[in-house]
Amino acid sequence: MPKVLTGLDVLVAQDFAPLRGMRVGLVTHPAAVDSQLRQAIELFAAAPKVKLAAIFGPEHGVLGQAQDLIAVAGGASKQSAAVAVHSLYGATAASLRPTREQLAGLDALVIDLQDIGSRYYTFQATMKYCLEAALPLGLRVFVLDRPNPLGGDAVEGPAVRKGFESFVSAPDLATRHGLTMGELAMLYTSELKLDGGELHVVPCEGWKRAQHFDETGLPWVLPSPNMPAADTALVYPGQCLIEGTNLSEGRGTTRPFELCGAPWLDAAKLARRMDDEKLPGVKFRAAWFRPTFQKHAGQDCGGVQLHVTDRAAFQPVRTSLALLAAMREMSGRNFAWRTEVYEFVRDPIAIDLLFGSARERTHLESGKPWRDLLAAWATEEAAFAHRRHTALLYE
């Protein structure tokens, strides 16, 4: 028996009593499993006196097979053939939100998605859009909660400024927000003043804020193709920033986000430089890798692998800010910011959407030390920590 029960486990133990007699839409993906690795779709399809009427898939799809930034089509469910699947990550920005027609006839919308605790991991933005669509129509929304794999104590990273909202910066959260999906749902519903329907969070049982995922006893199911392990989630809140550049964030390798670099970088020199920064809780190993797809596919890249040695002390967003500054400087004219359309937005560019403003990019471009940004970050982190307080569900 796991130490922690997810909201799905709790609902199954209740024999789906809160949903009896309802026509239900389910927002879900492969990581939505109970402690016995049974998928949510399978359990809802067999639930007594509950009609599974629609399935909604987030980025990467209901089956979790699609890479990042790849549009997913709707259609019939492979797990429950009689139920239509609606994609919430199609070819247009409008596809990110469920439509009135897709929600028609439902009594409740149930959301069961495994987040990983970072603002730009898009499942929490999908939940926000679902709340905005469903609650004003008078639907009941049930969020089946799951642990934040990074724990819930730490808050880190800058705020999102007006004009920089996108799918990776839909809400103004700290980059590492330290909240569960249920807590985020409560925060959004309160702050956005979403009336009409009702929000019900089915909390986890037994989870404490200080717990990381490997302390829960729950099985890890990769929530997206490049999140293969809980160790990947530890570094992701910082390392996803590298998506906003022409450097490789390790996609196309077996250790995405833990590895990063480029064909022109000197791995040993970069590792020495990063170790000289004496960043807490992390070591940098010089590494060469050859991505099989995406950036620099088929080319040998020099870079580093991040090894987290003390996850309580590790600060992923500050670490990757330092790493980005070093790699940009060492790259010289080879370096470029990513300028193509990113998450349906061309302007602002990707790195500004990821940081939440242009401040960090222009600071690095000016040649100023990366640590000069930290005083402003500390103020914004404290403000968010205060703001989130009323939404906290767990000790």
Which features characterize this protein?
Rossmann fold; Aspartate Aminotransferase, domain 1; 3-stranded antiparallel beta sheet; 26% helix; alpha/beta; 7-stranded mixed beta sheet; 395 residues; 2 domains
Biggest sheet, strands in spatial order? 3-4-2-1-5-6-7
Poorly predicted tracts of residues: none
> Average pLDDT, to the nearest integer?
96
Helix segment count?
Answer: 11
How would you characterize this protein structure?
The protein has two domains: 7-219 and 387-391, Rossmann fold, CATH 3.40.50; 230-357, Aspartate Aminotransferase, domain 1, CATH 3.90.1150.140. 26% of the residues lie in helices and 14% in strands. It is built from eleven helices and ten strands. It has helices spanning 7-13, 40-45, 100-103, 123-134, 181-191, 230-239, 267-276, 316-331, 350-355, 359-365, 374-387, and strands at residues 23-28, 51-57, 75-76, 84-87, 108-112, 140-144, 198-202, 259-262, 282-289, 301-308. The radius of gyration is 21 Å and the shape is globular. The model has no long low-confidence stretch (mean pLDDT 96).
Q: Could you outline the blueprint of secondary structure elements for this entry?
A:
Elements: H1 7-13, E1 23-28, H2 40-45, E2 51-57, E3 75-76, E4 84-87, H3 100-103, E5 108-112, H4 123-134, E6 140-144, H5 181-191, E7 198-202, H6 230-239, E8 259-262, H7 267-276, E9 282-289, E10 301-308, H8 316-331, H9 350-355, H10 359-365, H11 374-387
Parallel strand pairs: 1-2, 1-5, 2-4, 5-6, 6-7
Antiparallel strand pairs: 3-4, 8-10, 9-10
Helix pairs in contact: 4-5, 6-8
